[in-house]
Write a structure and sequence with these properties.
By secondary structure, this protein is an alpha/beta fold. It folds into 2 domains: 130 residues, Rossmann fold, CATH 3.40.50.12500; 103 residues, Rossmann fold (3-Layer(aba) Sandwich). Helix content is 43%, strand content 17%. The protein contains 10 helices and 8 strands. The strands form 2 sheets. A 4-stranded parallel beta sheet has the order 2-1-3-4, with helices on both faces. α6 links the parallel β5 and β6. α2 runs parallel beside α4. The longest helix is centred in the first third of the chain and has 17 residues. 45% of the residues are buried.
Length: 258
């Protein structure tokens, strides 16, 4: 019988992220054009959480009806199941909300079938983050076209949330998303404040929005939720048993204290 040798003495396991020595592993199915999820997750996730990525052509010219997408979702999830992920996330805000809560459940079922692991969507993470942050009335800001914002508003409305105001920048995906600097996102939020809002939802997994949270929250006196931030938080909640508790990540704002 072959038994794997233990890691060499003196090896700094804090440098091991997303390889064999991780205490927990999260797998992400992301749009093929997404370039910011990976660096952001690897930057903010604790060192002992492995981050594994599978890409799927599912946005832009590759958009398909839900039923045509599910087979590919299941195959992508299977690849992450091979990596022994403890949690597999369908990680695209617009796609996970586009088909409503019922469509989202079909996606989650495909992830579970393919991976054999617990499943989560970005939409699910965002909803949990909004509830934890006590945001019932929000301002929604995204780089998307208005139709995508409308899908998100409908999805959130079906779950009891109210969007008081929304901004759809309609910049070209995906290079346009990437071109918006954190300073510009801050300016956009400041230009669209609503006194009646409980907080702000910055939607999209392929932006620099996450870098604005710790600046905006003290200034606004209200919570700010972003797609990647919410998914990191919700993933860690689910993995906290393996990690010995919920890690503290001050750079992700007030959500990490909830």
């Amino acid at each position: 019988m072959n038994i794997a040798a233990p890691p060499p003495a003196g090896l700094d396991l804090s440098l091991e992220n997303s390889v064999g020595y991780a205490r927990a592993r999260v797998g992400l199915i992301i749009p093929s054009s997404n370039r910011l999820t990976e660096p952001q997750f690897r930057h903010f996730m604790p060192r002992d959480v492995g981050v594994h990525i599978t890409r799927l052509r599912m946005t832009g010219k590759h958009s398909r009806p839900l039923n045509a997408l599910l087979e590919d979702v299941e195959l992508a999830a299977g690849a992450l199941g091979d990596a022994r992920c403890d949690l597999v996330v369908f990680h695209c805000t617009a796609n996970s909300m586009e088909h409503g809560p019922e469509g989202e459940q079909k996606i989650l079922e495909a992830v579970r079938r393919g991976s054999g692991a617990p499943a989560m969507s970005t939409a699910q993470a965002v909803v949990e983050a909004l509830k934890a942050s006590q945001i019932k009335k929000m301002v929604l800001i995204s780089p998307y076209v208005q139709a995508s914002n409308d899908h998100e508003i409908d999805y959130l409305s079906a779950l009891g949330f109210e969007t008081l105001h929304n901004v759809a920048l309609a910049v070209p995906p995906s290079d346009g998303y990437l071109s918006i600097a954190p300073s510009r996102w801050r300016e956009i939020v400041r230009a669209n404040l609503r006194d009646a809002a409980d907080g702000y939802f910055l939607s999209c997994t392929n932006t620099t929005q996450i870098e604005t949270i710790t600046t905006l929250e003290p200034e606004l006196g209200k919570p700010v939720v972003n797609s990647n931030q919410a998914t990191i938080w919700a993933s860690l909640k689910r993995l906290s048993g393996k990690l010995g508790g919920m890690p503290s990540i001050p750079a992700l704002g007030s959500l990490m204290r909830r």
